[in-house]
Amino acid sequence: MRTRVKICGITRLQDALAAVEAGADALGFVFYPPSPRAVTPAQAAEIIAALPPFVTTTALFVNAQRNEIDEVVALTQVDLLQFHGDETPEFCQSVQKPFIRALRVKPETDLQAAAQDYAAARALLLDTYVAGVPGGTGAVFDWQLIPETLRPKIVLAGGLTPQSVAQAVAQIRPWAVDVSGGVEQAPGIKDAQKIQEFINEVNRVHV
């Protein structure tokens, strides 16, 4: 089974098209103002409108108000929501849109319990815990903390780069991998060559 690739933190149409051209399955848009990769609903809508079919678009939120989420969904017509804050299972489901639940993993994180709590999620996205930062830190966590039964269902994130992603895919065999900073020239500005290298490395594992 081929591991899918999501390129997150898209801020420019040229980066979105470069990712799609390279073979990305999904693109992520950050609606969290403190992030250097944040976009407005109008910016994301303009990019999404220019995309070809069969590319999954994802909206990332961190403890956003319900009206903010509704505005983004209405304006952008994203396919999937991604929750990175303290959102409860009830809140995630109340939006009535397919969603991914992101978890920041540390040694004591009970991933089996989280998978049960968020059973309605399409997937769990596992990122690295760094105090005070909801994601996009570029740090890697111990992949051995992921129970083997969950590995085929997760989206693996956290410090992945073209140099490390093949090892991650070979070791964990996740459903998908998610990268942001690892394929950038600067925060929010992607590097088309790094995106291509990243996707090539993912696909190489499955040859």
TrEMBL record:
Its recorded reaction(s) are: N-(5-phospho-beta-D-ribosyl)anthranilate = 1-(2-carboxyphenylamino)-1-deoxy-D-ribulose 5-phosphate
What pathway annotation does it carry? Amino-acid biosynthesis; L-tryptophan biosynthesis; L-tryptophan from chorismate: step 3/5
The biological processes this protein is annotated with in GO are: L-tryptophan biosynthetic process
The molecular function GO annotations come to: phosphoribosylanthranilate isomerase activity
Signal peptide residues are none
Q: Taking every annotated instance into account, which residue ranges of this chain make up the domain N-(5'phosphoribosyl) anthranilate isomerase (PRAI)?
A: 5-200
Entry EC no(s):
5.3.1.24
The record's listing under SUPFAM superfamilies reads:
Ribulose-phoshate binding barrel
Among InterPro entries, the record links this protein to: Aldolase_TIM (IPR013785), PRAI_dom (IPR001240), RibuloseP-bd_barrel (IPR011060), TrpF_fam (IPR044643)
- Spell out where the chain crosses the membrane: none
Query: Looking at the record's lineage, which domain of life comes first?
Result: Bacteria
The protein's UniProt keywords, in alphabetical order, are: Amino-acid biosynthesis, Aromatic amino acid biosynthesis, Isomerase, Tryptophan biosynthesis
Q: To which protein family does this belong?
A: Belongs to the TrpF family.
NCBIfam families reported in the protein's UniProt record? PRK01222.1-4, PRK01222.1-6
Q: What is this protein called?
A: N-(5'-phosphoribosyl)anthranilate isomerase
Species: Nitrincola tapanii
Gene of this entry? trpF
